[in-house]
Design goal:
By secondary structure, the protein is α/β, with parallel strands linked by helices. It folds into 2 domains: 5-43 and 286-391, Aspartate Aminotransferase, domain 1, CATH 3.90.1150; 46-281, 3-Layer(aba) Sandwich (Aspartate Aminotransferase, domain 2), CATH 3.40.640.10. It has 14 helices and 12 strands. Strands 2-8-7-6-5-3-4 form a 7-stranded mixed β-sheet, sandwiched between helices. A 3-stranded antiparallel β-sheet has the order 9-12-11, covered by helices on one side. α8 (182-194) links the parallel β5 and β6. α5 packs across α9. The longest helix is centred in the last third of the chain and has 19 residues, at 287-305. The radius of gyration is 21 Å and the shape is globular. The chain starts with a helix and ends with a helix. Bound molecules: 4'-deoxy-4'-aminopyridoxal-5'-phosphate. Residues 38, 98-100, 124, 170, 174, 202, 204, 231, 233, 239, 244 line the site of 4'-deoxy-4'-aminopyridoxal-5'-phosphate.
């Protein structure tokens, strides 16, 4: 008996092998610096943790409304008014078990087998897998280096066909750190509108923007076929709580709630109480923490740029660098898309974990998460330059 055909093309996360090897090396006592995982390792805000503990102690541990408790939907709506000056009603918010579940449900809601979905490349790997799981086709489009590879509306427009049903964008972006400004986002909204497309905007990293007014949320466009996805994972460092959300037109929220009711029933009641505390007080990154991230970004981008063969811009958002290592690979006698071999040698010889760009659909690059403290980044950077000296 064969498994369903949709599973055949599904690949396990390409980073798994490197992570497994890194854990093994750490167990063997090697000093491994992890620039691979996208998990902000600071603690979740105290009031969020306390609210989670109280939820357990008070017995708030059963199923909740499928789309999330009204208090949390209101708190998320109010955050948009406080942070972005946009009114969002609780009926326009659906709470999910993480942004990944939100994206999965939105693809289920909007895309049929045989449809095409435009996805910027490099991409967060789950986008293409989720689209393929409904029997649709991801059509990938890359932008220019200047725009940190985020494609513009014009670039995406060239790929629109009769079968295109939706566009899935990500800003601030993983893996490149690119951010769409309001003019660029407007162009994409106009493209979607002109072709009657759904537009899904993954804005999980909206707390991590280093150019004050650059980031623009899709919510500000009032586009009725637009859905904005957010998460408590990154800005509140609550990855394990599995709490995300969708903001969209209320006419679609009931349908989305139906999908969710058959998937997770509801998000975790405990996590919802914790997130309510986080969103109500808007405990996302304090300015001081954001400036620390900015310093780490600047430091690592600068020192990597000093290594011959590495081209590493400092992007305006998220907490990733996406250096181009193609010229380095060439001078080491490797192929343009052999960055996996290079990442592997960085791990084995220098004890530094990075993610090969191929995991995001773009070989010849590495993704580097600058989450460890500055001292560890200094150590990582000097290990990388010594390792490069050896391969050249
Ligand atoms: N979208 C992007 C771009 C991400 O980087 C991640 C997490 N790495 C997610 C979605 C999933 O977030 P969550 O933990 O809320 O499911």
């Amino acid at each position: 008996m064969s498994l369903a055909s949709r599973i055949e093309n599904l690949t396990m996360s390409k980073t798994q092998a490197i992570n497994d090897r890194a854990s093994q090396m750490a167990r063997e006592g090697r000093d491994v610096i992890d620039l691979g995982a996208g998990d902000p390792r600071f603690r979740e805000p105290d009031p969020a943790r306390q609210a989670g503990i109280s939820a357990i102690e008070d017995g708030f541990t059963g199923y909740t409304e499928a789309g999330g408790i009204p208090e949390l939907r209101r708190a998320i709506g109010r955050r948009y008014s406080k942070v972005f000056g946009i009114d969002v009603d609780e009926s326009e918010v659906l709470v999910t078990a993480g942004a990944k579940a939100a994206l999965f449900e939105l693809v289920q809601l909007t895309v049929d087998p045989g449809d095409e979905v435009i996805v910027p490349r490099p991409y967060y790997p789950s986008y293409v897998s989720q689209v393929a799981l409904v029997g649709a086709k991801p059509v990938t489009v890359s932008g220019t280096k200047e725009n940190h590879y985020l494609p513009t509306g014009t670039e995406m427009g060239r790929q629109v066909s009769e079968r295109t049903k939706a566009i899935l964008i990500n800003s601030p972006g993983n893996p490149t750190g690119g951010v769409y400004d309001s003019r660029q986002l407007q162009e994409i909204v106009e493209l979607a509108d002109a072709h009657d497309l759904f537009l899904i905007s993954d804005e999980c990293y909206d707390g991590f923007t280093y150019e004050r007014d650059r980031f623009c949320t899709l919510v500000s466009f009032d586009y009725s076929r637009g859905f904005t996805v957010g998460s408590a994972s990154k800005s509140f460092a609550m990855t394990g709580w599995r709490l995300g959300y969708v903001v969209g037109d209320r006419k679609y929220m009931g349908e989305l709630e139906k999908v969710q009711s058959h998937l997770t029933s509801s998000p975790s009641s405990i996590s919802q109480k914790a997130a309510q505390a986080a969103f109500t007080k808007d405990l996302s990154l304090p300015d001081k923490t954001l400036r620390q991230f900015e310093r780490k970004r600047n430091y690592l981008a600068k020192t990597l740029n000093e290594v011959e063969g590495i081209d590493c811009p400092a992007p305006p958002g998220s907490f990733y660098l996406f250096p181009d290592v193609r010229s380095l690979l060439k001078s080491a006698g490797l192929g343009e898309a052999d960055e996996g071999k290079f990442a592997r040698s960085l791990l084995e010889e220098a004890g530094v974990v990075t993610v090969p760009g191929g995991a995001f659909g773009l070989g010849g690059f590495l993704r580097i998460a600058y989450l460890p403290g500055l001292e560890r980044l200094e150590e990582a950077s000097s290990r990388i330059s010594s390792a490069v000296e050896r391969v050249r």
